[in-house]
C-alpha cells in the first residue's frame, strides 16, 4: 500500500471537508461496553484500487470493530466452497426488519431471509465451520492475506462481551437449530460468531480485503476465490441486504453494494473500479454509521461512480 496521491486523494479530502459536521452525530452501539465507549467524532475513509494501491483520509489506519462487515467475507468463503447448496439454507431477499429480528424465522421454517441479518449470518458461519473445521481461523487468514496485514486479529474482550450479552443471537441460533438448519452445537457456533464479529481492522485493511469483489472474484495473489458470477451474486446481496432495513435508502443515496457493521464501519464496492471503507462510530436507528453513509453518498456524487 502507498499514500502517494492519485485522483482519489483530493476526492477523499473534499469529502472529509464536506461532511465535517457529521461525525459525532448518531450514537455508538450500546449493547456492549467495548463499543459504547467509542468516540463518535472519529472518522476515516479509504479507497483501494484494483492493484492494491490504497488512499485514505482521517482515521483510515485506525483499527475498529468490523462486526457485521465480516459477514460479506464469510458469505464469499462459503459460496466459494459449496456454491448453490448454500441457498437451500438461507434466502436472498431483503428482510425489511432490523438485523437482529426473530419474527420471520417461524413462518419461513427456520430459513433466514438473507445472509446479512444475524440469523442468516449465523447459518453462514455454521456452514463455514463445518466446511473448514475452523470458521474464524479461515476468515482471519483470508483477511490477513488480502489486506497484507499479518497482525489483523480478533479482540477477545469484545468477543467475551458479545457472549455475555448474547441472548438474542443465542435465541436465533437455537430456534434455527430446532428446524435442523444449524449443524454445529449452538455453543460452538456462537463462540465462532462472536469471535468473527470481534475482528479488528482499519479502513485500509477492509478496503483492501474486499478487493476481490471489485475484481470479479480474483484475490490479491491473482487466484480466484469466486467465479465472476458468484462475485456478482455477493455484490447483489450486499446491495439489497447489506444495510438491513435501510438498504433501499442506501441504494438510493449511495448506489453501491455495501456492508455495514455496528462498529460504525461500512465497506462498499465499485465493481471493476475500486473498493471503499469508511468508519465513524455514531449510528442511526438502523445500525448504520451516519457519517459513513454521508461520506459514501458524497463519494458517488463527486465521482459519478456507482453501479447505476
Ligand atoms: N455482533 C453484532 C450482533 O450480532 C453484529 C451486528 C451488526 O454489526 N449489525 O448483534
Automatic annotation (TrEMBL):
Which residues are listed for substrate binding in this entry? 68, 118, 162, 169, 193, 244, 262
Under InterPro entries, the record lists: Beta-lactam/transpept-like, Glutaminase
Taxonomic superkingdom: Bacteria
Task: Provide this UniProt record's keywords sorted from A to Z.
Answer: Acetylation, Hydrolase
GO biological process terms on file: glutamate biosynthetic process; L-glutamine catabolic process
Show the catalytic activity: L-glutamine + H2O = L-glutamate + NH4(+)
Task: Identify the enzyme class.
Answer: hydrolase
Q: Which SUPFAM superfamilies match?
A: beta-lactamase/transpeptidase-like
The entry lists its GO molecular-function terms as:
glutaminase activity
Give the EC number(s) under which this enzyme is classified. 3.5.1.2
What is annotated about its quaternary structure and interactions? Answer: Homotetramer.
Hey, which family's this protein in? Answer: Belongs to the glutaminase family.
Give the protein name, as stated in the record: Glutaminase
